[in-house]
C-alpha cells in the first residue's frame, strides 16, 4: 500500500468505524445509578446537595427553604487509551490484524464510565461526600423536628462482601458522572510526527475529561452483612424510613439492589424467588430490580 494522505485518511476512517461500532454495542449501566452532568470548566460545584424541599399549606407569606448549603466540588480528570500501528503493516496492507484492538478500544471507552461510577460506589465506605462524612456512614448529621442535630445511618454494618440498595427513581441519583469532554477518537499519523519519524509508528487513541462523584447519601444504603431476606428487609426499612431536615419524610424507594458477581445467586434468591425455603410466600419478590456489576 502506498502511504499518502488519502490512504492514511482511509485507514483512520476504517479504524474509527470499528471503534464506534464496538462502542455502540456496549450497554453501559452507569446512568442507572449516576446523574450525568455536562461540565463547562475544570471542576463543578454542587451547592444543592444537602438541600431538601417539601410542600406546606400556604398560609401567610411563602416560607423560603434556605437550608444548609454544601459546596461539594468534583474536579474533572483526563483519561486516555492509545494504540500504535507499525508503518510496515501499512506498507504490507495488513491493517486487518488491528481490527480487534480498535474494537477493544471502543468497548473500553464505553465501559469506562461504569468503571468509574461503580468503583466510586464501592469506595463509599472510605470516600467522603458533601457533609464531610463517608458516603456510607453511621452518623450523617441531620436536623430533627426541633432543629437539633442528630445522626442518621445508611450503613448496615458487617465485614463481609458489600451489597447496596439504591433509589434510582428520581431525577437526582445517588452518584454523579461528570463529563467535561466526551470520549473522542483521535490520531497522530502525519509524516512529521515524532513517533512516525523515530519509531515508524502511527498512533490512534481515545481521550476524555470526566470524573465521578458522590451525590445524595440519602438515596443509597450499603450493608456488609450476609445478603439474606432478614438483612435485606432491615436495609429496606432503614432506607425507606429516612427523614430529612426538620423530620420531613423523604419518600425514599429502595428500587435497585446492586451486587457484585459473587452475590448474584443470593440476590436472586432474596428478591426473585416465589417462595422461601420453608415454603412460605416470599413477600419481597420483585420488590427491587437487580443490577449485577463486574466493576464492584
Produce a short descriptive summary.
The chain is an alpha/beta fold. It has one domain (about 70-295). The chain has helices at about 5-25, 30-35, 85-90, 100-120, 195-200, 230-240, 265-270, and strands at about 35-40, 45, 70-75, 75-85, 140-145, 150, 155-160, 165, 175-190, 200-215, 220-225, 255-260, 290-295.
Provide the β-strand percentage band. Answer: 25-35%
Note the total helix count: 7
Shape by Cα distribution: elongated
What is the total domain count? 1
In round numbers, the mean pLDDT is: 89
Main beta sheet strand tally, sense and closure: 5 strands, mixed
Radius of gyration: 24 Å
Intertermini distance: 46 Å
Which range best describes the helical content: under 10%, 10-25%, 25-40%, 40-55%, 55-70% or over 70%?
25-40%
Would you report the number of β strands? 13
Task: Describe, in plain words, how this protein is organized in 3D.
This protein has one domain. It is elongated. It has 7 helices and 13 strands. The protein starts with a helix and ends with a strand. Strands 7-11-8-12-13 form a 5-stranded mixed beta sheet, with helices on one face. A 4-stranded mixed beta sheet has the order 1-9-10-4. The chain has 296 residues and is an alpha/beta fold. Helix 1 crosses helix 4.
List the main descriptive attributes of the protein structure presented here.
296 residues, alpha/beta, five-stranded mixed sheet, four-stranded mixed sheet, 27% helix
